[in-house]
Design a protein that fits this description.
This protein has 337 residues and is an alpha/beta fold. It has 2 domains: 123 residues, Rossmann fold (3-Layer(aba) Sandwich); 198 residues, P-loop containing nucleotide triphosphate hydrolases (Rossmann fold, 3-Layer(aba) Sandwich), CATH 3.40.50.300. The chain is 32% helix and 16% strand. The strands form 2 sheets. A 6-stranded parallel β-sheet has the order 3-2-1-4-5-6, sandwiched between helices. The mean pLDDT is 96.
Length: 337
């Protein structure tokens, strides 16, 4: 499938959905829409993903396109009105539009009308199933090893770490499943439940359902984490994922240099305090040690400095650690195996 990615003013650093699609999804990306960087190419800023031209608008996309993917997810998940001309242009070309927002495109009168008129589909990725219920507390009983990524903060690389673990596990011949819990993971995997849109009482039940279903057919279940237990806005989602998945192991994700809570004027607690925080937090439902760590070193230019940062992170949390994008996942996979 050929897609264009909308990432205005955010590419690449603040367009994690677009970057995730470029790196992991089975799509042929023909263009990235970003008014700020128009005239460049993806590989000018991201050399390790598929390349494509960066253009100013949908009207500048000359290639055939099957779908426009909104590749940014602002805090609160709202729709930016400046995107409307590009979504309108895509629908008028008969392109489907995929969005991981809390604002549902299918409920927008103009977009719904254009989609109907031009035979296009609106996929609101964050629309959860309607038949969810509370957790039965059975995820700990599955006949599979369950690993859940957790974070010191939001937007530190939990989806990336989980996906890298999943792909590396498959390359090793491990029978692994990837459980998508957020919009980017769902867009990549093509399935999953957006837990931050689920009724709070049903969040753990939604994650439990996915874990139980995945464990029926796989030996390893890798659960994409969300938020952080210290984040004032997103801690509730973290609770549901950890308690719903009842993991055998937790993998702590952190970004080098992150010292304040994303979006808030609030200091981040010391990194070395997080293993105990998460283990104590999970203990009422599952004996889930923080068995490994993943460090995002995207802000570090030199590989030697990045290696030092990973080693320092590993020492601080007392378990093996990797940077999954830069150096691979061997140390963490060995722990899991």
């Amino acid at each position: 499938m050929k897609v264009a990615l909308l990432a205005h003013e955010k590419f690449p650093d603040d367009a994690k959905t677009a970057v995730g699609v470029l790196r992991y999804a089975d799509y042929d990306v023909v263009a990235v829409l970003d008014r700020t960087n128009a005239g460049t190419r993806v590989n000018d800023s991201l050399p390790d993903v598929q390349d494509a031209p960066v253009v100013a608008s949908m009207d500048d996309v000359e290639a055939d396109v099957d779908a426009l993917v909104i590749g940014v997810a602002p805090i609160g998940g709202g729709f930016e009105e400046s995107w409307r001309p590009d979504v309108r242009a895509a629908l008028e070309r008969g392109c489907d539009v995929y969005a991981g927002l809390h604002y549902f495109l299918a409920e927008d009168e103009e977009f719904a009308g254009l989609a109907d008129e031009h035979g296009a589909e609106l996929w609101d990725v964050r629309k959860p199933p309607e038949d969810l219920g509370v957790s039965d507390g059975v995820a700990a009983d599955v006949d599979a090893t369950v690993v859940t990524t957790v974070g010191t903060d939001c937007n530190v690389g939990k989806m990336t770490a989980t996906r890298e673990l999943y792909e590396a596990a498959q390359e090793r011949g491990m029978d692994a499943a990837f459980v998508a819990t957020g919009q980017t993971g769902i867009l990549i995997e093509g399935s999953g439940i957006p837990v931050d849109r689920v009724i709070s009482d049903f969040t753990a039940g939604a994650v439990e359902r996915m874990v139980v279903e995945a464990a029926e057919d796989h030996d390893y279940v890798l659960v994409e984490g969300q938020g952080s237990i210290v984040h004032p806005a997103y801690s509730g989602v973290t609770v549901g994922i950890v308690h719903g998945s009842m993991p055998d192991y937790q993998v702590l994700c952190h970004e080098v240099g992150r010292d304040s809570v994303h979006g808030y004027d609030q200091a981040l607690p010391p990194v070395d305090s997080f293993p105990e925080r998460y283990e104590t937090f999970a203990e009422p439902v599952s004996d889930s040690p923080v068995a490994a760590g993943m460090l995002n070193t995207r802000s570090v230019d030199d590989d030697a400095d990045a290696e030092d940062a990973v080693a320092e992170f590993s020492d601080s949390i007392g378990v093996p650690a990797d940077d999954p994008v830069r150096f691979g996942t061997d140390d963490v996979l060995e722990v899991i195996m």
